[in-house]
Amino acid sequence: MRMISIQEYDRRTMQLAEPIIDYRKRILLASGSTIHPKYMEKLMEIGIKSLIIEDAKSVGITLDEMIDMPTWIDAISSVEIAFQQVRVGKEIAINELQNTVKTLINEVLQRKAIILIPTSSIDEKLSRYAHAVNVALISLQIGRRLNLNQLQLNGLGLGCLLHDIGKALTADPLQHPEKGFQALKSNREISLLASHIAYQHHEAIDGSGYPRGIKGNDILEFAQICSVANDYENMISKDGIQPHEAIERIMALVEKKYSHAVVLSFTNGIISYPPGTHIRLNNGLFGIVTRIDSHLHRPIVKVQGISEEVDLSEQSTLFIQKVYNDDLGVKQD
Ligand SMILES: [Fe+2]
Fold first, then answer.
1. Ligand 1 centroid vs 197 CA: distance in angstroms?
2. Interval between CA 318 and ligand 1 midpoint (Å)
3. Distance (Å, whole) CA 70 – CA 40
């Protein structure tokens, strides 16, 4: 199983490893199927840019660090309902969201790290809610590395699922944090801490953020966590940036946008090179990442022409020099 961009899809060699879901959460194409060229247009129309596929190259590669698709879709659904409730001025029914948070915490605790399903792999009408679920997953992963307790993880998860809820009330990007805060604050079942995640998730440590331009420790740690997760998620899902580069971009803004402690916990819980990534090593050989074992940033790779897998965590002189979106890049190099 591996992730590809839709342009790389080749129906002669690839089958879907995960279903494609429409905005009503119905299965458009089941796993195991191939995509007819006519259908490709339809998928592009609804904004699908990434596919999770199986082919000869991905045999034996599993994405164990990825959340199960049905669980992900259920979580997306619960966020969508909350957005609809806020949009029509109803109180958010908090029970379902709390169940979602519990599920997401379990998903995070049972894995050593999280690989995101990009929001570009489902109908774009759901991408806003899928983004919220992904931000919650990354935030919970950070929270766990910061040794937050169960109660704190609950608050963090809920606040992150609802961090952009203000977007249900305004199209103005600069206003959504405050609108969200007001909507959440008025709900007695939602903690003030969770509400402040919505309010502060675009603030920056150096005061250059918005809406208030608050600085340093005035920004709650939960909001700092959400900020890192939010930016990382956008880089992966919206901008199509490779994980190792997204991690580097986050690290580049330590003590400017993000606090050191939060970024350290982030890098300790995220994978630089997900299984299925095509790579070239510094010895000139090409390969594909097959698994993550003891080191999140030093994967196990299958190298061309070598029958045994190479565990980079045991090889102090081998480095990943280049990452390719697909093996087309390898041929052109
Ligand atoms: Fe936001």
1. 10
2. 39
3. 23
Please write the tens of the pLDDT for every residue from 117-147: 999 999 999 999 999 999 999 999 999 999 9
Q: Do residues 275 and 290 lie in contact, with contact meaning Cβ atoms separated by under 8 Å? A: yes
Taking the centre of ligand 1 as the mean of its atom positions, its distance from the CA of residue 211, in whole angstroms, is: 11
Q: What is the DSSP letter of 29?
A: E
Average pLDDT, the chain: 94
Residue 163 CA to ligand 1 center (angstroms) comes to 6
> CB-hemisphere CA count at 13 Å for 124?
11
Give the CA distances from residue 100 to residues 29, 105, 191, in Å, rounded to whole numbers and listed in that order.
Answer: 25, 9, 16
Provide the whole-model pTM.
Answer: 0.95
In tens, the pLDDT along 52-110 reads: 999 999 988 999 999 999 999 999 999 999 999 999 999 999 999 999 999 999 999 99
Domains with residue ranges and CATH for the chain = 2-58 (3.90.105.10), 69-267 (1.10.3210.10), 278-332 (no CATH)
| 177 CA → ligand 1 middle, Å | 6
Q: 166 C-alpha vs ligand 1 centroid, how far in Å?
A: 8
CA 230 to centroid of ligand 1, rounded, Å: 8
CA 330 to ligand 1 centroid distance, Å: 37
The dihedrals phi and psi of 248, each to the nearest 5 degrees, come to: -65, -40
Ligand 1 centroid distance, CA of 176 (Å): 7
